[in-house]
Amino acid sequence: MDVALAVTVGLFFTVAIYLLLSRKIVRILLGVAILGNAVNMLIFNNGRLTREIPPFIDVDLMTPDRLTANPLPQALVLTAIVISFSLFAFLLVLGYRAYQELGTDDTTEMRTAEPREAPNPPQGY
Amino acid sequence: MAGSSYEKVDISQAMVVEPTASADWLVVAPIIITLLGGSICLMNRKRTVIQPLLGISFLVLLVVSNIYLLRHVIEQGVVTMVMGRWLPPFGIAFTVDKIGALFCLVASVVALAGAVYGMADIGKSQRRYGFYPFLLFLLTGVSGAFLTGDVFNLYVWFEVLLIASFGLIILGSEKVQIDGAVKYAVLNLIATTLFLAATGYLYGVFGTLNMADLAVKAADYPVGAPLLTIGGLFILAFGMKAAAFPVYFWLPASYHTPNIVVSAVFAGLLTKVGVYALLRIVVMVLPMVRADFAEVVAWMAALTMLIGALGALAQSDLRRMLGFLVVSGIGSMFVGVALGTAEALSGAILYAVHSIVVMTALYFAVGIMGRVSGGFEMRRLGGLYRYDHAFSAVFFILFIAISGLPPFSGFWPKVILVDASLETGYGWLAFALLFSGFLTTVAVGRVWLHVFWRGGREGTPDGVLDVPGAAARLAFVPADQRVMLGSLVVLVVLVMYLGLMPEPVLAIAQDGAAGLTDPARYIGSVFGEGG
């Protein structure tokens, strides 16, 4: 199971990096979303996949007496999902706004902040 | 491994019900003050007159609380506060040592200066769009990152400051800002995602994310593929946050686009959070990884410094030039990480403090200049020396400080870093430091020559003063905008103080650096009394 999930994570990373290398904002954003999911699954896998026994401890024990599911990665992944989801929502709006304002979603054409024909600094006094 | 037991944890301690010592509340005070202040500012979003006053009073409170925090840490050593008495390594610990407290204090001073400057620079509609709430939330993220003792919690603070900075960078929604914001947002989000991936691996290997616990466990862990992967990912992610070569491109693409006060606060704070995280995680928690990557980081440092300085030389727009100077300064801090000795680290910490203050002050000064002379384009400016001597003197002090020349704040960290490089046998790194300082001197010297000494715009003959409205002096800056000069002067005094009296801050930096190379006190604070 670990290996299968690890391979899936690897595939997700591959797809994400391929999309991130694209010039179109939409594809880059899809890449960001997939990258976030790849990392979430990576954390989940790093918490070790065990049988689905809930992590409850008997009343008179201090530690569980058998191997249980690890609750911590779930907490981490949940936090990460919420954060990456909200940031992704912001990025989507920003990308759309950029398309409206700049008239392009090609990052090589987005040169408003760094114009190609920016003047050189003075060469002499 | 995940799920291992912790025999050394004394469970009886978890049953302690006595309240936390009141001084220890100072550890979380920066978070509480900024969150509360930000929320109250947000509630008064539409009252554009009282909003700045609210924001500024909360930031004053933050500065005062951070002064007490620094004093507390100097007296008590490393202080730990654990959330809800969940003892480390289970609960989230806030552990603050001298570096964290020092950075927190400097960050809050700079933010306060920014809030005051913003009274004049930020218009009504931008106040309604939430400049002050975002500024305070930005400080929540920055302070949280400086204070936390948990790697995943550090990630959360990174995201808090990131989302606040998104709000600030597009304040105004101009074309240019949206263009800059797209690059800034996408690349920073990728950097934090990589940081999260490294955190996931760290958890997989050690089964804990508490920094002190990690430092103990990593010390006995064999250096191999897992640790080097983690270290490489951390260096890439934090290098991207800090804008180091070769992943710095987002910074010069975006830092000149927002309001000048936003640029100033960003230039002061954001990249330094990346450097701080690098110091904390790669230097303190994973020292053997740092040693393995020393050569790589050294090259990153040298190329960052040189490319930053060369980029500054190639710019004609003063704001864009400042963006490259920020990058160049990051290189100097990376020298400390590359060398890893206590001396080099103290130099890097001192440089970070210097850079926070001086970069913010430079953006403030350029902002005022742009206001009185109507632009940032070097070819079209001129005659400012005749325009106002005192203002020119302020610029001159900042130029000397950023170039690393005596007697101002840039000099001492550079001396320490050069000395440390020579002692460790990295002569070429010392040369790169000095050469980038030389290039920076040329870049800012040229600004001085053209913008201050030349009589007017490009092509003005010698000896002729041709500035529109040259009779008007800065004293005639409208009264409601004079606060800008005030906050600039405060930062410049700080720059002079750091240069002329480096001793107190240097002592803190040296002690903090010693704590990074030997984290025994840090670990003791987390696992000792537990708060």
Question: Can you describe this structure?
Answer:
The complex is a heterodimer of chains A (125) and B (531). Chain A is an all-alpha fold and 125 residues long. Chain A has three helices and no strands. Chain B is mostly helical and 531 residues long. Chain B has a two-stranded antiparallel sheet with strand order 1-2. The longest helix of chain B has 32 residues, at 175-206. Chain B starts with 10 loop residues before the first helix and ends with a helix. Mean pLDDT of chain B is 88; it is low at 1-6. Chains A and B meet through helix 2 and helix 3 of A and helix 7, helix 8, helix 11 and helix 19 of B.
Shape of chain B: globular
Spatial extent as radius of gyration of chain B: 23 Å
- Biggest sheet statistics of chain A: none
Which chains have the largest interface? Answer: A-B, 48 and 53 residues
Number of helices of chain B: 22
Strand content of chain A: under 5%
Q: What's the short version?
A:
The complex is a heterodimer of chains A (125) and B (531). Chain A is mainly alpha-helical.
Attribute tags:
heterodimer, A: 125 residues, mainly alpha, 58% helix, elongated, B: 531 residues, two-stranded antiparallel ribbon, 2 strands, disordered N terminus
